[in-house]
TrEMBL record:
Main function: Part of the ABC transporter complex (TC 3.A.1.6.1) involved in sulfate/thiosulfate import. Part of the ABC transporter complex CysAWTP (TC 3.A.1.6.1) involved in sulfate/thiosulfate import. Probably responsible for the translocation of the substrate across the membrane.
Pfam families to which the protein is assigned, alphabetical: BPD_transp_1 (PF00528)
Protein name: Sulfate transport system permease protein CysT
Chief location bin: membrane
UniProt entry tagged with the keyword Metal-binding: no
One CC-aspect GO term: plasma membrane
Organism lineage: Bacteria, Pseudomonadati, Pseudomonadota, Alphaproteobacteria, Rhodobacterales
Domain named ABC transmembrane type-1: residues: 61-268
InterPro entries, alphabetized: CysT_permease (IPR011865), MetI-like (IPR000515), MetI-like_sf (IPR035906), Sulph_transpt2 (IPR005667)
Annotated localization: Cell membrane
Annotated source species: Rhodobacter xanthinilyticus
Family: Belongs to the binding-protein-dependent transport system permease family. CysTW subfamily.
CDD domains found in the cross-reference section: TM_PBP2
Amino acid sequence: MARSFIQPSPMPGLGLSAGITLAMLALVVLAPIGALLVQGASLGAEGLWAEVNRPRVWAALGLSFRLAALAAAVNLGLGLVLAWALERYDFPGRRLLDAAVDLPFALPTAVAGIALTALSAPSGAFGALAARLGGRIAYTEAGIFLALLFVGLPFVTRTVQPVVAEIDRELEEASATLGAGRLTTLRRVIWPMLMPAALTGFALALARGVGEYGSVIFIAGNLPMQTEIAPLLIVIKLEEFDDAGAAAIGVAMLAISFVMLLAINLLQVWSRRRMGDV
């Protein structure tokens, strides 16, 4: 007898809920991706490569993925520290800080971009400080990095925070009783439990950073080959009625994102198996 891939559930309506879920997945996720792939496939392999293999396109793709990965890595560290502080310590203003973490979720990206540009311009607080040090933030890669930090931090914090809340303090006390120092406890006890959630937060921040548009275009300056991001280049192609060029860049971004997220998921699987063997 063939074995069913769907495990039986004591709750009624499994078939209906599964059908609705798959239908929504197909409409919301698979249909847009399929349309993009069909548009890209219409160019053929040579046409697709010809559209992507241009210095301006490679510069935009490199800038978007490089800064998104860097911002996600920094947000990984900041988000872990922030999540730990919010869950483990009681200090004045903790609830206000906890609520402020969600601001990048609620704030329109255009408003965030205008606010960051005002702060980073030579007359702004951050920009004036950078000018005194002989640097510049607005209309440079540093400005893009700052915007990606702002929009990506909540993804790591909110993903890790519930896991921190579930970690039993007795595990840390038992580790200390057995003679382990704080760094050893952090490395051997705490980090293995946080690693799957931390990688998920990193992946979410990376995905948001790669596709971010509204908060970046105001602060980037949008100079071709310098501060022009890939999403902006797609918009420019569409405004020029170059649908083939826009689709080619979209397919390239989809392929690179898929490889990066696949690597992160494989690392998550490895970390979970490693925890199961401990």
